[in-house]
Amino acid sequence: MESEIQRRKKNRINTYHHYYKRKGVYTFLWKNSLKIILIFSAIIVGFILFKNQIPDYDVKLELILNRINTWSALSIFFISETILGLIPPDLFIIWSKKFSSPYLMVSLLALLSYAGGIIAYFIGKYIGNIARVETWIMQKFSKHFTLIRKWGGVLIVFAALFPLPYSSICLVAGVVRFPFITFLLLGLFRFVRFFAYALILFSVV
C-alpha cells in the first residue's frame, strides 16, 4: 500500500501538472523548444557547410583562437553574463576548445555564468527599491515579469537551459523577490546547458 508521504507527493505533482497545463506552460515550452532546436540546427548545418568551404579551416581557427587573451575573454564573458547577456555564450564555448582541458574551461564558464546570474539577481533586488528605476525595468522586461509571476521557477529553468536572456530573467527574479535558495538550485541547470552545448559544438567546430 502507498504510504501517506507517497500519496502527498503524487497529489502535489498532479496539482502542479494541472496548474502548469491550465496556465499554458507546456504549450510555451513546446513551441519555444521547437523554435530553438530548429534555429540551432540551422546554425550547425550552416556552419558545417561554411567550414567545408574554407581551406585549412582547423589551422586558421586555431590561429584565431590562440590570439584571444584568456583573462580578457573571461572578463568580457563574466560582464556579459551579469549585464543583459549581450554576447552569446556559445562563442566562448567554442573558444574553450583551444585549451588542453576544454571541459575544465567549460566548467569555469558555467561557474562564471552562474555567478553572473546571482549578481544580476541582487542587482534586481537592489534596484527594485528605487521606484523610478523599477518602473523602467518593469516596462523594458514586462513580458519577463508576467511570465515569472505566472510560472515562477519554470521560466528560470528554461532560461538556464536555452538561449534566452538568462541574466535579464535573473534580474527580474531579483526585482520580484523570487525565493533566493530556490533560485540558486534552479540556476544549477546552467551547468547542464554549458556541458550539453559543449558536447554538440565540440563535435562540429
Descriptive overview:
The protein is mainly α and 205 residues long. The chain folds into 2 domains: 1-53; 69-204, no CATH class. It has helices spanning 4-23, 25-52, 57-66, 70-82, 89-95, 102-127, 131-140, 142-151, 153-161, 166-175, 180-187, 189-204. It is globular and about 60 Å long.
Question: TL;DR?
Answer:
By secondary structure, the protein is mostly helical.
Annotation, overall tally of beta strands: 0
* Tertiary shape: globular
Radius of gyration: 20 Å
Query: How many domains in all?
Result: 2
Stretches where pLDDT is under 50 for at least 5 consecutive residues are none
Topology, pairings included?
Layout: H1 4-23, H2 25-52, H3 57-66, H4 70-82, H5 89-95, H6 102-127, H7 131-140, H8 142-151, H9 153-161, H10 166-175, H11 180-187, H12 189-204
Helix pairs in contact: 4-6, 5-12, 6-10, 6-12, 9-10, 9-11, 9-12
